[in-house]
Design a protein that fits this description.
Blueprint lengths: L3 E4 L2 E4 L4 E7 L7 E8 L6 E6 L6 E3 L7 E6 L4 E6 L8 E11 L10 E4 L3 E6 L1
Parallel strand pairs: 2-11
Antiparallel strand pairs: 1-3, 3-8, 4-5, 4-9, 5-6, 7-8, 9-10, 9-11
């Protein structure tokens, strides 16, 4: 069982930066792929970024590529999402997720994740 708690959201002006953190409980964190997803009001949840178990492989949605960076610190049971050059369209609730299974790969589909945090609000003003 993995429990996830996100933090670091807030209100920022367009062009600004934020770093989201996701702290995980449990001794199996390093065995799970991790991902970040977001959901804006009235829209479906969408993939943002993913990272494999050791941080060696990452993947990003086209909309955030070059602006966002996902990383993890297995010693601290934490995954991060660094967000630069934020745009109003990045406004959403951001969720971190841990993969359903132990795996060396990463996943970009929500169904492959079995554990979710409660979400943290990111609001980007224009």
């Amino acid at each position: 069982q993995v429990q996830l708690v996100e933090s670091g959201g807030g209100l920022v002006q367009a062009g600004g930066s934020l770093r989201l953190s996701c702290a995980a409980s449990g001794r199996t964190f390093s065995s799970h792929a991790m991902g970040w997803f977001r959901q804006a009001p009235g829209k479906e949840r969408e993939f943002v970024a993913a990272i494999n178990w050791n941080g060696g492989v990452t993947s990003y949605a086209d909309s955030v590529k070059g602006r966002f960076s996902i990383s993890r610190d297995n010693a601290k049971n934490t995954v991060y999402l660094r967000m630069n050059s934020l745009k109003p369209e990045d406004t959403a609730v951001y969720y971190c997720a841990a993969s359903r299974d132990y795996s060396a790969r990463y996943y970009i589909t929500g169904d492959d994740y079995g554990y979710w945090g409660q979400g943290t609000q990111v609001t980007v003003s224009s």
